[in-house]
Amino acid sequence: MTNSVYKVMQERKSVRKYDPGFKISADELRTILLEATSAPSSSNLQPWRFLVIQDEAKKKDLRKIANNQEQIETASAVIAVLGDTKMYEKTEEIYMKNVAEGHMEHERAALLIQNAQNLYPQLPEEILTNIATFDAGLISMQIMLLAKEHGYDTVPMGGFDKVKFAEYFNLEENVKPMLLISIGKGTAPAYGSSRLDIDDITTFI
């Protein structure tokens, strides 16, 4: 297979050595995030939120609460993927935009809005967090693949103190830190890695 999606998937590796002098513009980072928002989400409620950290002092502080991972400080930016457990508050905005853009009829949108507003606010915090976590994973992979297509390297990081992160960046209680993604220009090739045999992990019934 030589199509571009497969090629990007194979070329994307977790890179931990970056050129600290290389900078990606805020406009290009915004473009990558915009492109990534085509990812699916539960009821299309798009619970992902982003904090793009470029300030050198803040990256230095973040490194201290992210297990001293070098790439936090040397990459061009760190994209913090966050999850909003009150994602349902944007239900009407999202579905009315669907109507305005011609994706669905008003009656259908009104029914979906009612269903979502009846369901989501009643769910336990744990379930809402699980939904936001799952959807954050979907968009995070798209961010990394798109970054590679733009010519940049990335590494996802779940190893950080989420409580201290939320405190440092003064996150609202309903906004949960999910994942950090360092993005920049790699200076050393990533290690290759093996995969389990597909026949060992797949069952056809």
Automatic annotation (TrEMBL):
Q: Which Pfam families match?
A: Nitroreductase (PF00881)
Superkingdom of the organism of origin: Bacteria
The keyword Coiled coil is annotated on this UniProt entry = no
InterPro entries named in the record: Nitroreductase (IPR029479), Nitroreductase-like (IPR000415)
Q: Keywords for this entry? A: Oxidoreductase
Molecular functions per Gene Ontology: oxidoreductase activity
CDD domains cross-referenced by the UniProt entry: MhqN-like
Q: Where is the Nitroreductase domain?
A: 10-185
Q: Say which family it is in.
A: Belongs to the nitroreductase family.
User: What protein does this entry describe?
Assistant: NAD(P)H nitroreductase
